[in-house]
Amino acid sequence: MKKALILGYGISGKACYDVLKEDYSVYVYDDKKIDGIKQISKGELENELPLFDLTIRSPGFNIHSEIFSLVSLLSKEVISEIELGYRYLKNRNVDIIAVTGSNGKTTVVTLIGELLKSINKKYYLLGNIGTPLISKVKDIEEGSTVVLELSSFQLENIKEFTFNIAIITNITPNHLDHVPNYSYYVGSKKKLLQNINNQIVLTNGNSYLKEYKRNTINIYDNKIVYYKKDKLYYIDKIIVKKEELTNQSGYILEDISYALLGVVLLYGFNKNYISAIKNFSGVKYRQEVLKVGNTIFINDGKSTTVDSLNNAMQLYKRNKRIIILGGIYKSEGIENTKFKRDDLLLIYGRDSNIIKDKTKRGLIFNTLNEALSYLITLDLEQKVIIYSPSCSSLDQYSSYIERSKEFENFIKEHFYVSK
Predict the structure, then answer these.
(1) What are 28's strand-pairing partners?
(2) For a 10 Å CB count at each end of the chain, is N or C smaller?
(3) pLDDT (tens digit, 9 = 90+) per residue, 257-283?
(4) Other beta carbons within 10 Å of 208
């Protein structure tokens, strides 16, 4: 029987195991003990040097580790969970919309889902948004649309993977704590296009895609779907004004342009899209605005980059603001962020001293809870509190969701009841 190895037994690793066990003798390499499966240790890999027909690398597994180098040598093929899932789909009548970028991926993917729902198109939102592609391949219906949110880590080990429409929202420095340099990070995003033929890529005009000029449509420079002066156009006709949107976040018209253009290119324009766009409330913990009396709280706990922080700071620029940030600093450029003179920074987490050194300002706290406990000692009347960490959450939390809920619950406990 063929042998397969799974590197990392998280959500995607388990999903791969459940599919591969039917055709392979499957081994798992993971630091934690897992009951009911065949695990292989570092010592066994180094001393026995077993050969594998296939290895699946989970997105969180370090591609630059010694173990990965050894396993790559011992395996006929090393691929990602996304590549494995694609191989089950490639001969089926299924459209694939692939979305990657440093910021905005989840919002664009979710928006696409709302647009497809409005025309009763069967669709699946999979990938980095939370549900592994491989876990659904057996259930995906013919004639449906698979919308994939793809991180740079998921793209590192693709081989045959391709798409109908690709969207690259933007590329800004990110994950620099896990990759050798910025060029490597950009390269991992660009790898999405390695099998491109006549497909279309939607982008914002990044220079690294210049050799794919005939395949790209610039959302800022096209005559199909675009926006200007807070108005969204379809072929020179205004279809939505920003003031009509439920979601008023700073980046929303750009994200709508990506989503709408992608769907229009595949399925044509439908008037149902307009109400779907207007009623889109946004992604949980992405610039959520909570108003309590004269105080405004913005829960942007999904923010993991400086670019997303800068975007959140476009909101309420005329107000006095308290900005809470911190965690694992993994992008760059916070020293260039244009804070206002009267902005107060509350910085917490592992890299709080690094952030304070770069910004030359702010108060340091060990944890978010400590920062919030200090917050309630301040006069918050007429103030805007922006929680946009701009860092990874993994120094103190299992995910951005956990820290976002902590901020949300703190507001409910201390402000909803008291005001």
Answers:
(1) 6, 39
(2) N
(3) 999 999 999 999 999 999 999 999 989
(4) 14
